Amino acid sequence: MRGGSGMVRGINNSGYVVGRSGIEFNTETRGFIWSGGNQIQPLGSLPGGDFSEAVSINDLGDVVGSSNSKAHLRALLWTR
């Protein structure tokens, strides 16, 4: 994932952490899930988008957040 800045936004009871990493509120910022160790799973953005962020994760592993699509920011749900 591209560095610059990062922010943790949520954690569930299994220790999965979600947030965003990249250039703060700029292109190439992506949401992520991290479960320990060195493995970070990036979350995609909507088609045509260049930004996503994960805000919360439940104990089933479902993640809520947002992504842009062209010029509009939309709520998003990533499911396992």
Number of helices: 0
Helicity, as a percent range: under 10%
Average predicted confidence as pLDDT = 88
First-to-last CA distance: 20 Å
Strand content is over 45%
What is the string of SSEs from the N terminus onward?
Answer: EEEEEEE
Alpha carbon gyration radius: 12 Å
Per DSSP E runs of 2 or more residues, the count of β-strands stands at 7
Describe this protein's structure:
The chain has 80 residues and is mostly beta strands. The chain is built from no helices and seven strands. The strands form two sheets. The chain has a four-stranded antiparallel β-sheet with strand order 1-2-3-4, with no helix packed on it. The model has no long low-confidence stretch (mean pLDDT 88).
SSE inventory with pairings:
Blueprint (H helix, E strand, L loop, with lengths): L4 E7 L5 E6 L7 E5 L5 E3 L9 E6 L5 E7 L2 E7 L2
Antiparallel strand pairs: 1-2, 2-3, 3-4, 5-6, 6-7
Provide the descriptors you would attach to this structure in a database record:
single chain; 80 residues; mainly beta; 4-stranded antiparallel sheet; 3-stranded antiparallel sheet; 7 strands; globular
